[in-house]
Amino acid sequence: MPVAPVPEMNVSMGLANRMAAGNDVALITIGRNSGEFYDRVVEGDFNLTQAEKELVETVSAAFHAQGKKAVVILNIGGVIETASWRSIPDAILLAWQTGQETGNAIADVISGKVNPSGKLASTFPMQYQDVPSSGNFPGAVIETEPEAEASGEQPGIASFLSPKPSRIVYEEGIYVGYRYYETFGIEPAYEFGHGLSYTTFEYSNLNLSAVSFNGQLTVTVDVINTGNVPGKEVVQLYLSAPANKLDKPELELKGFAKTRLLQPGETQTLTFAINGRSLASFDPSSSSWVAEAGTYEVKIGASSKNIRQTATFELADELLVKTETRALVPSESIDELKP
């Protein structure tokens, strides 16, 4: 179990005003511990503590009063709630947990030496209740038999994670992460794939090598730096598939690529490959990966919500991609989440 964090230092308005008078910008760091064999909690972890909220408010107000900016740096290992306070500072820099090079990396980004080009690999929800697993996690404790307790044995799912065995039913099915938010229309604070830059990019000339799928498809798209400084862009390819027999999310990430460092006005063509596995979904009834016949839509975007270019192709007949050995069949039926 990680050591409990040091309590947040109390920053009075007087101290904040003195710091604002002698500095050009405020850097407010919010940190979180990360470790194995324990789970996170909502209050004081996913949500900011009251002391952290007051720190952001006080320091931002002091610097804003003097016409200066405040930046919150998130040195965290997992998503946190940002919707209730993100409008207070001028910017949020997500550093994740970069170890001993954290300071150097942050300095390079804030100074403009490096143009940030990272994109979110997790969705930041508006509130914890928006997370698809919030209704069934962490499950329920399994009551142990008296003789087992007397002998020190723990039947069931005993583990390092809890002094008592517990039972969690995985109800989300295929609707996890952005697949859930996009399919169910749940607005996130920051969507999967989101990320800002000091420059801007435009996408154009989306092209498919064929309008009918025959085992392989090549996708190309042009990316141009339309801003004033050099930068890199991460382009994402999503696919929306027909859902006649199997449940399908609104879209699924099937590929991504980062441009080289593009100078202002410079263009690069990125290429993606789509194969049968890209189209397939698992069919529990046949224990196989199947691509349904119908119209597939290619969506090229800067994030799961920021789709810039679209195109379609056809799959004439159902495609059996791979058959798996039936194993680990649930011992009871699970009421999986459905749109």
Outline the fold blueprint.
Blueprint: H1 13-22, E1 25-31, H2 42-46, H3 50-65, E2 69-75, E3 91-94, H4 102-111, E4 140-141, H5 146-151, E5 166-167, H6 178-184, E6 201-208, E7 216-225, E8 234-240, E9 252-258, E10 267-275, H7 276-279, E11 281-283, E12 288-291, E13 294-301, E14 307-315, E15 319-323
Parallel strand pairs: 1-2, 2-3
Antiparallel strand pairs: 4-5, 6-7, 7-10, 8-9, 8-13, 11-12, 12-15, 13-14
Supply the key terms.
339 residues, alpha+beta, Rossmann fold, Immunoglobulin-like, 3 domains, 4-stranded antiparallel β-sheet, 3-stranded parallel β-sheet, 7 helices, 15 strands, 27% strand
Summarize the structure.
The protein is an alpha+beta fold and 339 residues long. The chain has helices at residues 13-22, 42-46, 50-65, 102-111, 146-151, 178-184, 276-279, and strands at residues 25-31, 69-75, 91-94, 140-141, 166-167, 201-208, 216-225, 234-240, 252-258, 267-275, 281-283, 288-291, 294-301, 307-315, 319-323. It has three domains: 13-111, Rossmann fold, CATH 3.40.50; 128-184, no CATH class; 201-323, Immunoglobulin-like.
Task: Give your account of this protein's structure.
The structure is a single chain. The two termini are 38 Å apart. Strands 9-8-13-14 form a four-stranded antiparallel beta sheet, with no helix packed on it. Strands 1-2-3 form a three-stranded parallel beta sheet, covered by helices on one side. A three-stranded antiparallel beta sheet has the order 6-7-10. It has three domains: 13-111, 3-Layer(aba) Sandwich (Rossmann fold), CATH 3.40.50; 128-184, no CATH class; 201-323, Immunoglobulin-like. With 339 residues, it is α+β, with helices and mostly antiparallel strands. The model is unreliable at 153-161 (pLDDT under 50). The chain is flat and about 70 Å long. Helices cover 17% and strands 27% of the residues.
